[in-house]
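quick one before i forget lol
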Amino acid sequence: MFTRIVVGLDGSEQADRALDVACDLADKYGSEIHLVHTPMAETVAFALGAVAGYHVATTMPSPEKVREAAEKVLGDAQQKMGGQPLSADQLHIGDTEPADDLVACARTCGADLIVTGRRGLGSVSGALLGSTSQKISHDATCAHLTVA
């Protein structure tokens, strides 16, 4: 039923739950998983919280720190998957808006499903459903599952 599943990650607990659901579906259907993370000021600050001397991000840090944070989010997700090796073309660091990057990845890889957390670390603009999830639901050409 699902041959390729794209999972949106931002380091939040809801994104972790979305990854758990995606892994469960992938095990059931033998699906290939693609992980997508788009660095935003909030997610970079969260991911780099453990890096000495880095406390709060009011603006985007240097490109090196952004890359470090993105690799940490993707690496943490791979560990959560049990260290399952993923090829480089299954790991995506976006550079636009999270919803746009997820939809573009799904189109490019031919995904049948996008899985995201209902709300993540981004802005509080969506009261019940996060703004990223709302945009994906409108723009995706495949199924979209939001996980609470």
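fyi Residues 50-55, 122-128 have pLDDT under 50 and may be disordered.
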